[in-house]
Each structure stands twice: as structure tokens, then as C-alpha cells.
Design the sequence.
């Protein structure tokens, strides 16, 4: 039994990281502003030395949810700055940025079919979850 415990301890010691600690760089905070009014409204804004920025404004939403809107940015490896704006509310998280891929435009025939569907819905047409018309 003692041999098994000793073998386990030896395995842990051998598996432990060896050598020097990684070289971590401490990044300073350039600005940090935080406000909380206590009624569900808040905002914060911060920036770091290496170019990371974020500002967020929050406010009460429907059904006790917290809605937020804001922006954040950070430097990319190629020197450009990645910038995003967002809204988070009852409709979900909605980010916007030039870096978010966009789908190609819909073909004209699909646009026309969607118009027809809208017209049918306005006339009271309904479909089941399999796409079959039920009225």
C-alpha cells in the first residue's frame, strides 16, 4: 500500500511543470469609470495600456431583465483595431462589426417568394411546422 502511495506522489512530482515561470507582462489600466445608480441603471468605461477599450451602459428591461448597449475594441496582431458595438436586450445579443462575416445577398427569386409569403400571411394563410399550409 505504501508503495502505491509513494508511486502516485512520485508521478505527481514528475508531472509538475519544470523550469522557470512564464514571462507575464502586467498591463496597466489607463482609465476605469464605473457608475451604478442602484435602480438598475449602470455604466462602465475602461481602457488598458495595450489598447483594449470597453464601454457599456445598462438599464432595466422587460420582465426584470437587464438591457445593455455598448462597444469594445482591441488590437489585432496585424496592427489593426477590432471594433464592435452591441445591444443586448429582449431580442438577444446583437453585435455589429466590419469583422463579422455577412451572408451573400439573397437571389432575386427568393426575395420575390418572401414577398408572396408576406402577402399570403396578410390574407390569413397559416402553415404547420413542416411547411404545409393548414388553411
Sequence:
Amino acid at each position: 500500500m505504501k508503495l502505491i502511495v509513494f508511486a502516485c506522489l512520485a508521478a505527481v512530482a514528475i508531472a509538475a511543470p519544470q523550469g522557470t515561470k512564464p514571462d507575464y507582462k502586467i498591463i496597466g489600466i489607463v482609465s476605469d469609470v464605473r457608475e451604478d445608480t442602484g435602480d438598475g441603471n449602470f455604466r462602465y468605461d475602461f481602457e488598458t495600456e495595450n489598447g483594449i477599450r470597453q464601454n457599456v451602459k445598462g438599464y432595466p428591461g422587460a420582465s426584470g431583465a437587464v438591457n445593455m448597449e455598448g462597444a469594445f475594441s482591441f488590437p489585432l496582431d496585424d496592427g489593426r483595431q477590432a471594433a464592435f458595438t452591441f445591444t443586448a436586450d429582449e431580442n438577444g445579443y446583437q453585435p455589429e462589426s466590419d469583422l463579422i462575416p455577412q451572408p451573400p445577398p439573397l437571389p432575386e427569386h427568393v426575395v420575390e417568394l418572401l414577398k408572396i409569403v408576406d402577402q399570403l400571411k396578410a390574407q390569413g394563410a397559416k402553415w404547420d411546422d413542416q411547411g404545409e399550409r393548414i388553411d
In short: The chain has two domains: 23-101, 103-135. The chain has a mean pLDDT of 87. The beta strands are 29-36, 42-48, 53-60, 66-75, 81-89, 92-96. The chain is about 20% helix and 35% strand.
